[in-house]
Amino acid sequence: MTTIRDIARISGHSVATVSRVLNHKKYVSPSVRAHIQSVIDELDYVPNAVARDLSRGKTMNIGVVLLNLPHPYYTDINAGIMAAAFAAGYNVVLLQSKYDDDQERAYLEQLRRKAFDGLIFTTHNIPIEEMLPYRKYGPVVVCHDPGDVDIDAAFSQRGPSYIQAFTWIHRHNFKKVALLLPRDPALSATAAETVTAYKQVFGADPLGSLTRLGSMTYADGYAAAEYYVTNGLHPDFIFANGDDIATGVAQYYKDHHLLTPGLMGQDRQLSGELLGIPTIDHHYKDVGATALRLAIGKATGKHGLHSDFLTRE
User: Fold this and answer.
1) Which tens digits make up the pLDDT trace of 224-261?
2) Half-sphere exposure of 224 (CA within 13 A, CB side)
3) Residue 263: beta bridge partners?
4) For the chain, what is the largest distance between any 2 Cα atoms, rounded to a whole number of angstroms?
């Protein structure tokens, strides 16, 4: 394998001069530059990207830990990260989580070994405290409110919009409200904020029989509706974890010629607009862009972005 020293030996110039040519630096005469370049071309030499990254102290890569799910939280937040990274001259490396603790720890170890300049966790299963020691190797960013934990964060401030949403539901006299949540509230900040807002407005815990976990897709919404109907539960309102999920609910009732209960989605998707149902815009693309700025060191701290409740009335 050809090295920079081989080029220096064959061309008769120093390694430093060859390095200037490779890195398009000044202080090399046109004739010397042309001669060295001819040797480079003849040997078909390509600089080692890893070595170059190590020499300049940056990889220009940002790792992004996410789930491979067609949910707006992941698609929109990743779109925001990608757009901001492109504008800043960075590359994005997508890292699958699957909520595997060992895999998430392995990504932190890759940060320690300088595989990335920074690491964004759009979601995670390991305790946030495990991430803290790795901040000395590069920015570590989470995409939820970390509370009192001292870590960089970009997140949607869902709480106030959830209060508005459940207040709207309460004012319309709905009593049997079903919740379609992403995960157990003990594990998911989104689910926890949803349940907290429900309890604040209704003054009671959500009905366990009407609360469904693992709701992330249209198919999950369809399955939830089937579950309610099959078990004779009959909620009069369903609060879904996304407009597409609410659309799945609506389709089940339509397919079976049943009266559709009240519906509310999230994420301001086209499906929700076509249904004309209330929704919540969490501005995930802006969250992603902010997370990228934190990951490349252009910002620090905790950045909460306001969510908007939209009645579509």
Assistant:
1) 999 999 999 999 999 999 999 999 999 999 999 999 99
2) 34
3) 238
4) 86
The token duo for 56 is 């300049």
Task: State the span(s) of the chain assigned CATH 3.40.50.2300.
Answer: 58-151+284-307, 158-281
CA dist 21 and 220 (Å) reads 58
CATH class of 158-281: alpha beta
Residue limits of CATH 1.10.260.40 in the chain: 4-47
Average pLDDT in the chain: 93
Q: With residue 86 as reference, give the H or E element that holds it.
A: helix 72-88
| Residues 142 and 118: beta-carbon distance below 8 Å | no
Residue type, 234: H
Q: Return the structure tokens found at 158.
A: 């869902």
Reported as a single tens digit per residue, the pLDDT across 11-67 is 999 988 988 888 788 889 999 999 999 998 888 887 765 555 555 668 899 999 998
DSSP string, 132-177: GGGGGGS-EEESS--TTS-SEEEEEEHHHHHHHHHHHHHHTT--SE
Query: Tell me, what's the pLDDT at 3?
Result: 84
Distances (CA, A) of 76 to 50, 73, 153, 285: 31, 6, 17, 5
DSSP string, 6-43: HHHHHHTS-HHHHHHHHTT-SS--HHHHHHHHHHHHHH
- Going by the DSSP 8-state scheme, the letter that residue 123 receives in this structure is S
DSSP 8-state code for residue 300: -
CATH topology assigned to domain 4-47: 434 Repressor (Amino-terminal Domain) (1.10.260)
The reported pTM is: 0.80
CB atoms within 10 A of CB 29: 9
Both tokens of 69, joined, read 């799910």
Report phi then psi at 141, rounded to 5.
-125, 135
Q: Identify the CATH class of 58-151+284-307.
A: alpha beta
**143-178 tens-digit pLDDT:** 999 999 999 999 999 999 999 999 999 999 999 999
Cβ(65)–Cβ(49) below 8 Å: no
